C-alpha cells in the first residue's frame, strides 16, 4: 500500500513538473550533441558515437525536460546556456491565439519583477568594463559589472562572479529584445 502511494506521488510530481518544463532550449541535450559532433569528423563515426551515447542522450533529455527547462520557464533564462528569453517567451507568429484578453501581469516572467528598483546608473570604467549601480527602494545598493574578454563578457555582482556570456549570445539577446520592442511587447 505504501509503495503504491509513493509511485502515485512520483508520477504526479513528474507530471506536474513536465507541465512547465517541456518547452525549453534543451541545453543539456545540445551539449551532448555538440560533444558528439566535435569528437568525430565524419558522418559514419558520428552516427556510431550517437548510438554509443544514446543512454547519455536519454539522461540529458530527462534532465532538460524535468529540471532545466522548468527552471528556464520560471526564471526566463536557461541555467546552463544562460540564454534568455525563455523559449516560451520568444515572440513568434502564433497560429492559434489562446487568449488575447490576458491581463498584462500574466505576460511577463514571474521572477523577473524589478518594481523594487529605485534607480540604476551606468558608467564606463575603461574600454573593457561597464558598471551599473543599482539602488533599491529599501535603501540597499548592488553593483553589477561586465568585463569584456576576447569573445565573451564576464559578469560580477558586488565583486562576486556570476557568469560568462559569449558575444554571440549577447547579440542574440539584443536582437530578441529589439524584436520584442518592435512588436509592442
From TrEMBL:
Top-rank taxon, per record: Bacteria
Parts of the chain that traverse the membrane: 48-71
PROSITE patterns in the record: PROKAR_LIPOPROTEIN (PS51257)
One Pfam match: DUF3332
Keywords annotated in UniProt: Membrane, Transmembrane, Transmembrane helix
InterPro entries: DUF3332
Name of this protein: DUF3332 domain-containing protein
Organism: Vibrio diazotrophicus
Amino acid at each position: 500500500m505504501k509503495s503504491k502511494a509513493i509511485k502515485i506521488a512520483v508520477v504526479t510530481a513528474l507530471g506536474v513538473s513536465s507541465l512547465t518544463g517541456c518547452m525549453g532550449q534543451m541545453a543539456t541535450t545540445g551539449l551532448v550533441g555538440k560533444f558528439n559532433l566535435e569528437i568525430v569528423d565524419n558522418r559514419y563515426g558520428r552516427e556510431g558515437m550517437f548510438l554509443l551515447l544514446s543512454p547519455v542522450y536519454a539522461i540529458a533529455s530527462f534532465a532538460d525536460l524535468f529540471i532545466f527547462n522548468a527552471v528556464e520557464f520560471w526564471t526566463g533564462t536557461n541555467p546552463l546556456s544562460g540564454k534568455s528569453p525563455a523559449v516560451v517567451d520568444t515572440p513568434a507568429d502564433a497560429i492559434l491565439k489562446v487568449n488575447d484578453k490576458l491581463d498584462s501581469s500574466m505576460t511577463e516572467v514571474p521572477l523577473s519583477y524589478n518594481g523594487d528598483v529605485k534607480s540604476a546608473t551606468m558608467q564606463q570604467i575603461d574600454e573593457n568594463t561597464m558598471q551599473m549601480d543599482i539602488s533599491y527602494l529599501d535603501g540597499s545598493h548592488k553593483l553589477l559589472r561586465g568585463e569584456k574578454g576576447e569573445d565573451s563578457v564576464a559578469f560580477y555582482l558586488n565583486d562576486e562572479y556570476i557568469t560568462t556570456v559569449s558575444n554571440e549570445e549577447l547579440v542574440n539577446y539584443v536582437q530578441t529584445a529589439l524584436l520584442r520592442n518592435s512588436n509592442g511587447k
